[in-house]
Every structure is written in C-alpha cells, then in structure tokens.
Design the sequence.
C-alpha cells in the first residue's frame, strides 16, 4: 500500500466497490473531529466511484457530510467537484463553503437557528448534525470545520447504485468525505414532525 503525506492510499483494484479512475484515495483513521473518527480523502486530480450498499426503494434526499477546512495532512486546498449517481450529474459542482451558505451560529439567532436552517437548505447546505462531537467536545453542528451539502432528491430502486466524485478543476485539489446520508423524503417533508437535528 502506498502512502501520501504519511497517510495510506487505497491502491487501484483494492476493492471491487471502489473504482479509482484517477487521483488518490486516502484512508484517514483516528480523526477526532469526524463522525466515527474517520474520513475518506480524495486528493490530486481525483475521479472516484463508490458502489453504495443496498437501500430500500424510495425517494431520498442525499447529503454529503464533509470537512471543508484544510487539514494538516492535505497539501491541497478544497476545490470544486461534481457528484454523479449512476453516471448522471446530480446538483451543481461545489467546493469550499463560503458566505453564500448563509450559516449563522444558533446562539446568534433569535430562534436558536430555526430560520437559518431553512435559509441554508434553500441554497443547498445544512449544518452538521448534533450526533457527534469534535476533538474539543463541541457538537459538530456548532463547529465551522464540518458541514453538509444537499446533493439531490432522487428515487433509488432496489438495484445497487454508484456515486462518483470528480474534480472539475485544472489544478489538483482535495475533499475529505465524512459520511453520506440517505434520508427518506417523507421524513424531510413532514410538517407535523420535522426532522430533528441529530
């Protein structure tokens, strides 16, 4: 196994569920500011496709939780990437979040962030969930080093599906992917029982 900046790189052909077309896939373990203490780093001129686990057929809101801030392990800045599902473009390319995400810390709002959550969703972003803490024991929702991108809403049948992440920049870059969420649309849209922050 090859290493980049001290981190192990997944070699091409290591798993039939990971198709590394280009770039490096880094397996980063023990990261205290990530969900389950691990992330998958995509670096360089990356183009990587993952086979998803089986899912019950229904319409999902698909979200990516990721670490947008540069880490000590990365020699690259966050750059724009495009997401594909089963070979089809999903959503707009995105990179480092900026002021257009509309993020305001809950404690600085009059309603503990309720309206701010709606604003962020309108432009395709969400704060991280409360379910895990960073290394300083701060819930991820309150930490600028973590965010969620709403990729798309899509019907997925019972077949195995693939999700692809491709750099669309002419300079090498990186993304640190923490988790994917597949949230049934009836949970997202329920007006009587709104989705919780966990």
Sequence:
């Amino acid at each position: 196994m090859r290493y980049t900046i001290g981190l192990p790189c997944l070699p091409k052909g290591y798993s039939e569920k990971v198709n590394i077309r280009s770039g490096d896939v880094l397996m980063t373990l023990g990261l205290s500011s990530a969900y389950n203490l691990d992330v998958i780093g995509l670096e360089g001129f990356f183009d990587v496709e993952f086979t998803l686990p089986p899912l019950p057929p229904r319409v999902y809101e698909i979200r990516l939780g990721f670490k947008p801030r540069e880490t000590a392990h990365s020699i690259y800045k966050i750059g724009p990437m495009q997401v594909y599902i089963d070979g089809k473009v999903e959503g707009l390319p995105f990179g480092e979040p900026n002021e257009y995400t509309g993020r305001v810390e809950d404690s600085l709002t009059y309603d503990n962030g309720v309206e701010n959550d709606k604003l962020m969703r309108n432009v395709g972003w969400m704060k991280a969930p409360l379910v895990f803490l960073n290394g300083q024991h701060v819930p991820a929702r309150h930490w600028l080093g973590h965010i969620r991108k709403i990729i798309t809403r899509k019907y997925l049948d019972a077949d195995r599906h693939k999700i692809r992440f491709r750099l669309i920049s002419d300079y090498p870059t990186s993304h640190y992917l923490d988790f994917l969420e597949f949230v049934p649309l009836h949970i997202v849209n329920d007006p009587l029982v709104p989705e919780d922050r966990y």
Summary: The chain has a mean pLDDT of 87. The first helix runs from residue 114 to 122. Residues 2-99+128-188 form a domain with the Jelly Rolls fold (CATH 2.60.120.260).
